[in-house]
Amino acid sequence: MLQDxxxxxxxxxxxxxxxxxxxxxxxxKPVAVIDIGSNSVRLVIYEGLxxxxxxxxxxxxxxxxxxxxxxxxxxxxxxxxxxxxxxRRFALLAKxxxxxxxxxxxxxxxREAQNGPEFIRAAEAALGREITILSGSDEANGAAHxxxxxxxxxxxxxxxxxxxxxxxxxxxxxxxxxxITTPLGGLRLRDLSGGDLAKxxxxxxxxxxxxxxxxRGEGKPFYAVGGTWRNLAKLHMEQQGYPLHVMHAxxxxxxxxxxxxxxxxxxxxEKLPGIAAVSKSRRALLAFGAVALRSVVRFVKPEKIVLxxxxxxEGFLYDKLSDEERAKDPLLESALELAILRSRSPQHAREMVxxxxxxxxxxxxxxxxxxxxLRVAACLLADIGWRAHPDYRGxxxxxxxxxxxxxxxxxxxxxxxxxxxxxxxxxxxEQQHIxxxxxxxxxxxxxxxxxxxxxxxxxxxxxxxxxxxxxxFKWLQDPRGGFTLAIPAALADLIGExxxxxxxxxxxxxxxxxxxxAR
Length: 519
Hints:
15 strands; 7-stranded mixed sheet; Nucleotidyltransferase, domain 5; alpha/beta; ATPase_NBD; 47% helix; 3 domains
């Protein structure tokens, strides 16, 4: 019998039918930053102004406004035309995306060039709005705010390497230090040195060694911001055979880093091992980025380099958040957003946070504050893979979580979050499924990922991922030894062979005698 198609409520694929964008957060209004830098002009549209920013659209044009500025004092003519064409395009793209709040900002090249004011007038005409020209101090503060947006309570030295300048600023629990700017951006340093890398090193050493931040990095991380440094890190990651290809929060110990930087400075970039990971447009300035970083390592003396994918643009928007929004944990905000967009019940995910806390407390599983926030994030992410084929849910969820644009989590934490979800779907802990990531997590976090995953496996069989059930469960000390998972008598029929089997698997990993009973 033919089905009446008029009763089919599924979305139509006809182009004339407007479909709701259910993959975007409800109520979020797009906001954009147009960054007019010395090397690139970039448009980034974010889903909304929030503690955890999600990129909706991102495009850059390598106009090279700062090329030759050190010699001529003026913006290059063809570069200006390239930048203006990009700005006209970006204005239309922002309009098409429904962006009402567009924030154009300009940095070193436009600020310092003799014909900078003329260019800014033309750029404002192209965009139809006023451009904010940032001072060197503004750039340093913006980069520091970008690091605040992207990390959990960061402290250390922030360095933002652009095409025209390098900004440095100290970030402490008490706030920001005084930001300084130096003419060590890739394009500027190449021009000042006439392309001579030995002379470039001398120039960089002179500026960094005499700066107020010389020696201030001892025992602290150096947060590296900027495309050239990110591409240096890509190269380092490739050469190291690192298992997690995520730039944000990638860490490089400064001990032994000189050898890598020396090789970048002295070698033909096209012949460097792993150079395919670096876009061709970025290779010409790699050596000058290595020169600047070598000066930082020598004179600021940080303990390690930590890459930040968030910088001036995100810092500019972070500055516009209320104190209440700034106080939120960006990792947990990001995890909750994924739960809203992908889980069967975001409320159940939130209930899992409380249930896992009660379970850990009852069973005597201790946790540090950092482990607690990772557990909370793992609970919020626990059900985002449910639409995948059962045979691949674990691997797909692992990939999504480990590579997601989540801020404020280091790579150990990413490995923990991804593996928790992987084990939750796979069940088996006997074999080394993902040895590189398991090694990255470390023994303690790996054990906790297994504990939490097996708790999830018991819980989801008893709730079907639906809210309103978990708050009725409790752990009771059992006079026979161990603990009993007590569920209401009205839910007694939930007890069965599969939940019992999973409970015993959980009991084994926590080292406790566990039972399930209706009370």
